[in-house]
Amino acid sequence: MKVDAPNSPVASVIVVSFNTRDLLRECLLTLRRAADDVSYEAIVVDNASRDGSADMVATEFPWVRLIRSETNLGFAAANNRAFEIARGAYIILLNSDAFLRPNALRLSIEHMDANPRVGLAGGRLVGRDGSWQPSARMYPSILNSLFMMSGLAAKYPQSRLLGRMDRTWADQFQPAQVDWVPGAYSIIRRSVLDRIGFFDERFFLYYEEVDLCRRIRAANREVWYWPDIVVEHLGGESAKTMEDSASISSGSKIELWRMRAGLLYFRKHHGNFGAWTSMLLDRWWYRSRALRNSWSKSAQRKARVANFEMAIATLKQAWRDTRGGTTSPPRPW
User: Fold this and answer.
1) pTM of the model as a whole
2) CATH code of 129's domain
């Protein structure tokens, strides 16, 4: 096994860490076992974790290149710090709660070598129990958001129209050219990054990988989903470690981040109309759900009204914080 070649490794595996010490350890151990004979380097960017993640990496994995950030940079900016020092011809993005299955790294590189027009690709994400996770998606749009929020996408997953956001109608075992793949695992051609630029750091968390895939496709390169690359993914582990504050719960904070990023994305790629329409659609949906539940005789459904009202308040805050999607609030969000 080749870990950190003296010259340029074939791949640079980048892991952004935030308070997931034990999972990060498992991630790195799995990487080392699953790498086969691929020449790679591993770079961990620690986003000011409070659980000793950075010290664990320094002590137990001295072969890993460790970047310690004094503040939480978020996903985009943290990866960009690693991009600056990465030496591989391919960049591998790997979440700290994602674990490579055998041959995943080797197959990723073989596919990229065989398909020079591909700028970025992802694999098949599965849970601990092997259950499929959405691994190849269409771009967010007002129509796609409506299908998802209304529940129609979940009710009719085999519909090419209603299930198109997560491509739930597609055969998960068939490779496909797609709009974008989740950042839990992806392989990126370094030469393409150098051409189009790194992640847009206005996105603290969420939508940054969608934005990158859009820019890759705009540069006349392809984005692919390859199902023989299998990665076990838990999801949301860093969010679970966030401390609550008196003003906003950790769950509401994550929802605020998602809303901010969504407004930034729609403004960037769909202009003023896109940002306004996205905001109005969300507000209408939460308001209609609150009204519908308030009419119910069920105490459980009536209790949901407060959640929808909080979502509306969070959306208004996201609009103020981003000035309608035109400005990213200072990091950390």
Assistant:
1) 0.91
2) 3.90.550.10
